[in-house]
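Q: How do we represent a protein-ligand complex in a form that can be generated token by token?
A: Start from the inputs.
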Amino acid sequence: PGVVPGVWAGVMPGSGPGLQAWSAICGIASCLLPPATVAAAQDPDATMSEICDPTTGLPMPGIPSMFEPASPPAAEIETLTWLLLGICAAIFVVVQAALVHAIVKYRATRAASAEDGGAGEPRQVYGSNPVELAWTVIPIVIVFVLAMTSVRLIRDIERTTPPENSLKVTVIGHQWWWEYRYPEFGIVTANELVIPANRPIWLELHSADVNHSWWVPQLAGKMDCIPGHTNVLWFEAERPGVFLGQCAEYCGTQHANMLLRVEARDDAGFEAWVRGQQSPPAADLDDAEAIRGREVFLALACQACHDIAGVSEGAFGPNLTHLMSRSTIGAGVAPLDRDTLRRWIDDPQTLKPGCNMPSLELDDAQLDAVV
Ligand code: CUA
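Then emit the structure tokens for the protein with dinuclear copper ion bound:
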């Protein structure tokens, strides 16, 4: 207790063992979030626009509460957090009580100072075995309890092998968006992780550039995405719903807008999503505007960065296959509809300053066609 979690994050190599428990402490800050935001974020039917800041129209940047866990690792982290908070609160009360007691009982009174020349101060103690033992042994016991409970929690929730029947998803952190690959289904998507509820999820986390950290507080502790190194994380959503999170490792200009969105669906809903993602885009477009849009997309630099199944094979930016099945754009920076999509393509820097997608300065006709 009292140790700044960020300090631990700095001294712990990688972030594998250890950070899960400390992320619990970091999550205390999430208590401060207005409950209404959390409730809206958890409503599976809520669209992003319902939790947007009314003045800017952008999604609220709040962090969902880790005190409403929806997955076994998150529930264990919450339990440990309450234990740590309880012990720290008890220490705070005892220390403050002793302080107030000393201030009140031994404060210098004018009468005492005048009569005995300042002899009103308490008896001075030099070298007391009982006192020194007490202030050594009690903190050692407290630290031992905290360390052991934390180590036990880490052992409980960290796994080196995937849970039985788990769905494996590869996560790749990019500046400033998330790539998700489902090897089981041959699906590649971006920024919105769709999963089945009540089935363990096994994430293998990588990074394409700098360190990122995948953190959805209601599902699991933090886990870093590190270039050239694979970390793993598991969780299991106990109910369908939308769980929001945030990149938790400073990774550059748009770190704060590297938002996470996990949508847990019931089995039928998940199967429908998988079928939708696997279906190829219409091969023969009959809409003249759509044909024109594809021509513009292929003629400009769009196709060099973005992969669209059956259209282009760019690998640098988010995969745009079935883009309109997603709820947000720019890694959660704005709700996705045709209007925001048009603004985004016109100039991404207005919605997400500093992001790696430039404005290609399309004219109105080109914008209309692409959107
Ligand atoms: Cu990615 Cu911070």
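The first helix runs from residue 5 to 11. The two ends are 52 Å apart (CA to CA).
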